[in-house]
């Protein structure tokens, strides 16, 4: 049975925690413990109620992490970190050698070395100086500057032979300012993580070793110029003993972090030992020297790897005759034969397979060999060629498994499917086409997914521009959907530069001839271990395993998940105990639920309820992943919001970001709690405060902005008392006869609709969720089944639907903003008559013409203005768009058109006008631009915003405060339209029957 109370040893250690071992004069250092998933910034300070001990729950053969933060008012040095043995019951122990430490780093001196891929990036830092720590140093000491916090990464490993129990000891941080002892407790449960070599989940990351993707391929006698990591980053000769020792060190790190598959550049090893690929056209050479190939393979086999992939065949097949390449005829029927292509494939793959069998490295002995064909096919030609080659591969070496990354699911066609052994869609494609992929899996194929730079936040991925826990929860999500493997393209593609962590998850360490781990790499290993724990639970309690993951990640949308490090740790500890067969009780309740998560006896309240009382200057901001698609923001100290509610608890949901500051939160006038919403990377829909033990009844919460920084209020979540009834005032549908394409979403409260030409009336048919509720349309009562019709003149008008639940008090408001007469023609659209259009974020060269700012005012919805990709990395908002006229213009309506608005649309602007062409006046601030589409479907989307009348304008400056640019690292505007339209306000409506 698990101990419920701490031992005397732990109590003693707790009394001594976070204090100098020697009771000398105060040293001025603050020392505290931090959750491994929480980012420690250099500006982080000792919290009000700091953690002072490390408490971990672990399975056997599991690694668990924590952080110790150290901060001083003057420079100091951490000279060493020491661990005691961990002891349980005075007789069982975990040796101190199983405890490790690393210093988290905020930047590295390592740079991109000369290469053929990106010569322009040579000298760029691999991990530039950052506010966010990621690399984990292998050095034993670290200097720290005054008033700068230094995190120490602590890792506990529990050997497989360890008996269950509660093990206690300490960590001592030794500094030139005194020594600090922190208690360390590891509760070991009777569960075990399988060895990397025994797991059935495939963790596959491409690694740069003797070459990378397709570099260095030579078909004939020419020498190879493959990019060798040992030569360029470690100063060792390719294929020397030191090089192979480096590979051995790489392999050890990989398998320690649960990587069980690697790809092999077979062509480069054969080239080095004297066999040209061209020789396989005429047969299998008699004198193939496999020695380098074998030595490389043996290194990874000795570390436990049993899965290997041969590099993509397409890069070799590019040397085949032009007459054997795809053309339009392949769409009707694939060729029966391609003489040289077929000869090469048969001979090359047969030679490889025969050698693998001779070495005992085939499926009969537990090895699996995978064959890449072409990475990321995206069109008919690529798909046809992939299909032809895969067919030949399966005919030649049937036990080689065919696979490739498939970003859009293009291989899911009847012609190709018979030759796909492993499906590897990009995670968005998998989410969209899951039913099809699961059918292929049920038919016997393997199902993996892959991630890369396309899976931008909030997709679960490993970027350092998103919360650390996303790289961990990715594997929970894969378990959630029965996915059997994961591919990522870059373990150490350092030639790319930083690329937000997409290009590397480890860092070079030439001094120690190995790599540095990273905080993200640690999170990935944790997620892989938890995949195994969940599978163990699934064996006996599948419904519990599913409940655990569903409580953290939305099963219908992997972009929605908990953002609480504490909750992830609580679930981890719970699943360790559950995997051990302990009585664990209910799954812990979420402390920061994801948007849409169903929680019993709760309801949400935001601006649409009409019950929040704001004081000060607030504005609305569109946010795709906020509750109801937006937040309300203030940037002024002492601005406040109050909300009176009935219940027994309340949560405050906010957006955390780098412009946020501190807020004071109080209930019923009590002493306020201070909460800090700063986070370098954006956290949407984050529960920053929770008070869930109030006396049932009426209460008032007040949130006050403490600084002239952002307070991004999303919503309040009310926890009701037992017996208290929740009322739902939402609508289940709004149908508009004249706009049949309207995509209604009950969580979206504002719609901006352009009425088609000839639509002189509009008929609205709302349906309430509450069958006993009431509705009104522009003040007129409308019963269930009735419709409201209004005549619509040219201009801007509005229809407001108020839905009231059957309690008579709970209400929701939906607003339809209508525009009619906005016709994109010269003389009507004022932007079309502009003399000049400029932008601060303008592309150069030919792209400056193709995607230049003039394209947004050319009347052509097939052209667009697009900012340079990556521009925001070095040029943060605001950006400007400026239109100039020879003759003054007047307008009060801004229309924007783009495709995929939630992927590339501008969403927050200030409007500034000049009547003399020199001096500007701001007429509207933080105008929200709302988009609906997050599909890459090339369907044009229009939205509009009304502004105060801008009269006799010679220059318009639109200041872009924000945009949805993160998916493609750019924003785009196909057409900017300006109109002078009358504002008719709310329309008169007449109510008609069903």
Automatic annotation (TrEMBL):
Xref: SUPFAM superfamilies: Galactose-binding domain-like (SSF49785)
Keyword Signal attributed: yes
Residues in F5/8 type C domain copies: 811-981
InterPro entries in UniProt: Cadherin-like_domain, FA58C, Galactose-bd-like_sf, GH123_cat, Glyco_hydro_123_N_2
UniProt region (Disordered), positions on chain: 759-779
Keywords of this entry: Signal
Cleaved signal peptide residues: 1-24
Official protein name in the record: F5/8 type C domain-containing protein
């Amino acid at each position: 049975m698990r101990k419920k109370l701490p031992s005397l040893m732990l109590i003693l250690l707790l009394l001594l925690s976070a204090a100098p071992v020697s009771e000398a004069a105060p040293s001025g250092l603050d020392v505290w413990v931090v959750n491994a998933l929480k980012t420690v910034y250099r500006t982080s300070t000792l919290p009000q109620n700091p953690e002072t001990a490390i408490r971990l729950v672990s399975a056997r053969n599991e690694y668990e992490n924590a952080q110790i933060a150290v901060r001083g008012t003057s420079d100091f040095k951490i000279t060493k970190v020491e661990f005691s043995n961990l002891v349980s019951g005075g007789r069982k122990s975990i040796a101190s050698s199983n405890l490790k430490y690393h210093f988290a780093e905020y930047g590295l001196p390592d740079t991109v070395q000369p290469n053929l891929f990106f010569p322009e990036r040579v000298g760029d830092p691999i991990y530039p100086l950052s506010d966010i720590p990621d690399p984990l140093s292998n050095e034993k000491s670290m200097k720290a500057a005054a008033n700068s916090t230094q995190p120490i990464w602590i890792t506990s490993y529990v050997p497989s032979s360890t008996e269950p129990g509660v093990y206690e000891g300490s960590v001592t941080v030794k500094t030139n300012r005194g020594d600090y002892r922190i208690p360390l407790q590891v509760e070991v449960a009777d569960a075990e993580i399988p060895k990397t070599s025994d797991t059935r989940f495939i963790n596959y990351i491409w690694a740069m070793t003797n070459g990378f993707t397709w570099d260095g391929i030579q078909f004939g006698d020419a020498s190879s110029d493959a990019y060798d990591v040992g030569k360029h980053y470690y100063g060792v000769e390719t294929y020397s003993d030191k090089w192979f020792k480096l590979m051995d060190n790489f392999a050890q790190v990989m398998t320690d972090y649960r990587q069980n598959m690697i790809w092999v550049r077979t062509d480069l090893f054969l080239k080095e030992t004297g066999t040209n690929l061209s020789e396989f056209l005429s047969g299998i050479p008699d004198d193939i020297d496999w020695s380098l190939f074998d030595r490389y393979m043996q290194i990874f086999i000795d570390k436990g790897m049993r899965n290997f992939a041969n590099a993509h065949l397409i890069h070799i097949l590019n040397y085949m005759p032009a007459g054997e390449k795809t053309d339009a005829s392949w769409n009707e029927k694939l060729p029966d034969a391609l003489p040289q292509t077929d000869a090469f494939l048969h001979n090359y793959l047969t030679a490889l397979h025969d050698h693998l069998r001779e070495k005992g490295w085939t499926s009969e002995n537990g090895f699996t060999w995978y064959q890449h064909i072409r990475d990321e096919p995206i069109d008919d030609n690529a798909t046809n060629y992939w299909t032809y080659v895969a067919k030949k591969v399966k005919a030649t070496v049937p036990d080689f498994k065919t696979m490739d990354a498939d970003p859009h699911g293009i291989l899911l066609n009847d012609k190709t499917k018979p030759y796909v052994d492993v499906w590897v869609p990009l995670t968005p494609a998998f989410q969209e086409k899951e039913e099809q992929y699961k059918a292929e899996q049920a038919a016997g194929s393997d199902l993996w997914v892959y991630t890369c730079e396309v899976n931008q936040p909030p997709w679960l991925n490993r970027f350092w521009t998103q919360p650390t826990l996303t790289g961990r929860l990715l594997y929970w999500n894969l378990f959630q959907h029965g996915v059997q493997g994961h591919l990522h393209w870059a373990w150490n593609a350092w030639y790319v530069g930083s690329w937000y962590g997409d290009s590397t998850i480890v860092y070079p360490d030439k001094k120690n001839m190995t790599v540095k781990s990273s905080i993200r790499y640690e999170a990935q290993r944790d997620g892989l271990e938890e995949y195994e724990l969940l599978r163990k639970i699934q064996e006996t309690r599948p419904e519990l395993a599913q409940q655990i993951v569903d409580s953290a990640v939305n099963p219908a949308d992997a972009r929605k998940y908990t953002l609480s490090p504490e909750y992830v740790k609580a679930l981890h500890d719970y699943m360790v105990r559950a995997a051990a067969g302990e009585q664990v009780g209910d799954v812990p309740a979420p402390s920061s639920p994801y948007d849409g998560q169903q929680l019993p006896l709760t309801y949400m309240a935001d601006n649409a309820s009409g019950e929040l009382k704001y004081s000060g200057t607030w504005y609305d901001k569109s946010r795709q992943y906020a509750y109801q698609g937006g937040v309300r923001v203030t940037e002024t100290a002492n601005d406040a919001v109050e909300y009176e509610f009935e219940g027994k608890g309340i949560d405050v949901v906010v957006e955390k970001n780098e412009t946020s500051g501190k807020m004071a939160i109080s209930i019923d006038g009590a002493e306020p709690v201070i909460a800090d919403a700063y986070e370098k990377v954006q956290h949407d829909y984050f529960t920053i405060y929770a008070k869930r033990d109030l006396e049932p009844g009426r209460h008032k919460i007040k949130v006050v902005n403490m600084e002239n920084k952002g307070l991004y209020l999303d919503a309040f979540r009310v926890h009701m008392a037992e017996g208290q009834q929740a009322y739902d005032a939402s609508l289940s549908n709004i149908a508009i006869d004249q706009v049949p394409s309207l995509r209604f979403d009950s969580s979206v409260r504002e719609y901006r609709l352009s009425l088609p030409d000839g639509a002189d009336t509009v008929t609205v048919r709302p349906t309430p969720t509450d069958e006993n509720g009431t509705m009104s349309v522009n003040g007129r009562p409308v019963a269930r089944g009735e419709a409201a019709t209004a005549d619509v003149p040219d201009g801007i008008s509005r229809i407001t639907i108020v839905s009231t639940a059957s309690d008579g008090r709970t209400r929701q408001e939906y607003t339809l903003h209508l525009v009619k007469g906005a016709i994109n023609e010269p003389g009507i659209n004022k932007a079309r008559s502009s003399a000049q259009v400029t932008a601060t974020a303008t592309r150069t060269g030919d792209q400056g013409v193709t995607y230049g700012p003039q394209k947004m005012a050319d009347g052509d919805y097939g052209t667009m203005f697009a900012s340079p990709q990556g521009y925001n990395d070095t040029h943060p908002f605001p950006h400007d768009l400026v239109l100039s006229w020879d003759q003054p213009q007047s307008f009060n309506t801004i229309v924007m058109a783009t495709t995929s608005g939630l992927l590339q649309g501008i969403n927050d602007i200030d409007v500034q006008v000049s009547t003399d062409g020199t001096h500007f006046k701001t007429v509207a601030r933080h105008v929200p631009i709302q988009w609906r589409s997050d599909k890459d479907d090339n369907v044009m989307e229009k939205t509009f915003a009304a502004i105060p009348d801008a009269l006799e304008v010679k220059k318009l400056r639109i200041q872009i405060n924000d945009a949805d640019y993160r998916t493609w690292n750019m924003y785009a505007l196909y057409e900017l339209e300006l109109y002078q339209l009358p504002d008719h306000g709310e329309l008169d409506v007449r109510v008609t029957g069903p």
